Amino acid sequence: MTDLSWHAATAQRGRFLGDALKGRGLTPEMPPEDRLRVIDTLVPLLEGVYCHLPQKRAGYAADPVQALRLLRQRCIEMTDGEFHLAVTGIVTGLRDAHTRYVGPSGLRGKVAVLPFLVESYGPDEAPRFIVSKVAKTADVGDSGFAEGVELVSWNFVPMTRAVDVYSVRETGGRRDARRARALETMTLRSLDYGPPPDEHRVNVEFLAGRRRGELCLPWRVVDIPAATLSNDPQVALKAAWNPAAESVRKAKTLMFAPGAWDAQRLVAAGGRTVAATASAEQGSRRKAPRRTASGEAAPAAGDVLATSLPDVLLARTVQTRLGRLGYLRIWSFDVDDHEAFVTELSRLLQELPADRLIVDLRANPGGLIWAAERSLQLFTDETILPSRFSLLATPLTQAMSQSAFNRLELDAWVESLTDAVSTGEVYSQPIPLTDPQWCQDVGRKYPGAAVLVVDPNTYSSGDLFAAGWADHGIGPLVCVGQATGAGGANVWGDLQLNEALAGTPYEFDPLPDGIHFTMAIRRAIRSGRSDGIPIEDLGIRGIPYALTRRDLLEGNTDLLNFCARALRDWS
User: Fold this and answer.
1) Rounded-to-integer distance, Cα 303 and Cα 307, Å
2) How far apart are CA 435 and CA 234, in angstroms?
3) To 10 degrees, the CA torsion angle through 183, 184, 186, 191?
4) Element (H or E) spanning 394, and its range?
């Protein structure tokens, strides 16, 4: 592990959770009228705008609207903590990471962290849990706690059971998706979208070879810029992402890739693009150079290409048993400028080996829909048909679409919403959010074969990218787990909804200070070969793959070899 910069080391240490909780100050008790206002705002919006309500009622036998109405009858007698926990539980019960309730907190823009990362390998029915990364600042003494140790228990609860307990409180329409998110939140939790850990310290029992050890580590709180929608309102209204997962992704970079963290700070400050070089050992093993799509010599295995977007893109070559391949990691689609994203992605693709490529979308929490769907054209000659989105057909969405304020955003849905409301249809006509012409304005940039890798933490715009990949036959799709995370919607925040409903009979007053929510507004359905199939709760399936211990500790060695074979068989 490379030495930490002063900035990264200081940021990693953060503050002890107990100190952070003491220092956040007391949040004033909400008056009864504010609690009623929260419920009276959420009920009509869930009933009239929340695009997955019919599906969630049918799939989970749950009715959040009725649950909130019942809560209204007793919320006055509750404490603030009980009230916010009750509302959070009702909303989380929808199993939808797009739709979140955010109570008041003095810990905005912060993530609670433990200085290690837990990952699982093996089959879903018998997983094993190991520590895959340990932060350089972790104080483990001579306990033997290090990368590769196997976790046996968590706070004295057997590890498998502990993960299942955590998963009950997580979003996700499938068990494997909830478990994947639970595993992540065991050591990293966004305090923007959830409460802090109940315990201030975690006791873990582990196996280091045949030696059994035990360690107690404190939760710390680090400063991570809050995941926010773009300042451009037209871009913000095209978001499809999990903001809590985006905050956690950035915290992972700080804790376990401090060099990349510093590089991102340099770019954000107006510095030059990031450049990386191969190790001396890799350089000594170079053979005759392969050619890139641009005709230049391909970088040696391990070389990381310079990029102006180090926070969201990583491109390099990898060595497999079937030779050298290009490797592209798309960490996120959380960008403000889709043109700059597609341009930079095009450039990187032309500098990688031109014959075979692995596109890794694991743990991508989503972002700007335009960036995700426009990128598909770079890998294929097929005409890309973007996913389509529909609104729940209610008098509320009808009024919202007819408002002059929303004509630019919702005019395309006005006629079908009017017809659907009058005939009892559940949804409006599905219409793309990405202009189909934009999906063919650049054309193919990578000439070779490509394989896509996803997992249950590939979410939202990541789901859309995976759906487009599969539905246009771009290449094989390898799935770690059962399917992608299954986030099938365009998400808006309370501020966007407040503006969209202004001047209609359904306008609402701003929420009490510190209270916010996000909500799935437009429901996504697939195009192409899977035309009409929803993404929510289903996700995108592919060739199943179970991670191995070598994957977690040796740079995805077995996964990369599996992908190389998938490309060979596809051809």
Assistant:
1) 12
2) 14
3) -150
4) none
C-alpha–C-alpha distance, residues 294 and 296, integer Å: 6
- Evaluated on CA atoms 51, 54, 59, 63, the torsion sign reads positive
Instruction: State pLDDT tens for residues 256-315.
Output: 988 777 776 666 666 544 443 333 223 333 333 444 443 444 455 568 999 999 999 999
Angle made by CA atoms 343, 528, 485, in degrees to the nearest 5? 75
> Which letter, b or e, does each residue of 294-314 get, where b requires 16 or more Cβ atoms within 10 Å of its Cβ?
eeeebbbbbbbbebebbbbbb
Starting at the edge strand found earlier in the chain, the sheet holding 220-223 runs: 15-16, 220-223, 110-113, 188-190
552 SS3 class: helix
Q: Residue 195 has what pLDDT?
A: 83
- Select from 289, 286, 282, 298 the least CA-distant residue to 352: 298
Buried b (16+ CB within 10 A) or exposed e, 407-434: eebbeebbebbeebbeeeeebbbbebbb
Residue owning tokens 């006509």: 429
- On the CB side of 503, CA atoms within 13 Å amount to 9
pLDDT attached to residue 23: 62
- Cα separation, 137 vs 116, whole angstroms: 10
Inter-residue contact 452 to 328 (CB < 8 Å): no
Distances (CA, A) of 153 to 128, 169, 212, 552: 11, 19, 11, 19
Q: Whole-structure pTM over 0.85, yes or no?
A: yes
Non-local CB neighbours of 250 within 8 Å, separated by 6+ positions: 111, 224, 225, 227, 311
Q: In 10 A of CB 440, how many CB atoms?
A: 16
How is residue 75 annotated by DSSP?
G
Burial zone of 561 (CB within 10 Å; 0-12 exposed, 13-18 middle, 19+ buried)? middle
Tell me what percent of the residues of the chain surpass a pLDDT of 70: 89
Nearest to 539 by CA among 60, 58, 173, 171: 173
The strand pairing partners of 323, in sequence order, are: 320
How far separated are the first and last CA of the chain, in Å rounded?
39
Considering Cα of 489, then 495, then 499, then 504, what sign does the dihedral take?
A: positive
What is the full DSSP assignment across 400-467? HHHSGGGHHHHGGGHHHHHHHHHHT-SB---EESS-GGGGGSS-----SEEEEEE-TT--THHHHHHH
Q: How many residues does the chain have?
A: 571
Residue 188 scores a pLDDT above 90: yes
CB neighbourhood size of 27 (10 A): 15
List the structure tokens of 536.
């929510």
